[in-house]
Amino acid sequence: MEQEVDLTKKKCVPCEGGTLPLKLEEVASYMKLLKTPWTAEGNKKISRQFKFKDFKEAMMFVGKVAEVANNEDHHPDIHIYYNKVEIELSTHSIGGLSGNDFIVARKIEKLLEKKETD
What we know:
Elements: H1 24-33, E1 39-41, E2 45-51, H2 55-72, E3 77-81, E4 84-89, H3 99-117
Antiparallel strand pairs: 1-2, 2-4, 3-4
Helix pairs in contact: 2-3
């Protein structure tokens, strides 16, 4: 995979049963395309915790993540702990990671980049 890939310009594609999860080397390549630190659990899932000033700000972020997820038709697991939001991405239909998980992760990162420039 080339380093110049902009995942924010990609669109998720439906995965079907029988498709294999990414190999560990592919996961490592995709991780390099993310701009913030995510944790990879092998080739099963990636996760990251985001911290906000309060519950309201955390919930506004969750609403924006929901929009991204619906637009991509690829939905993360979201855990909310007052001002902290943990996002977990995995492609359930294949039992592991696909390129879609990284596309959504990068688009989630982009939400915060916009906030920082506002």
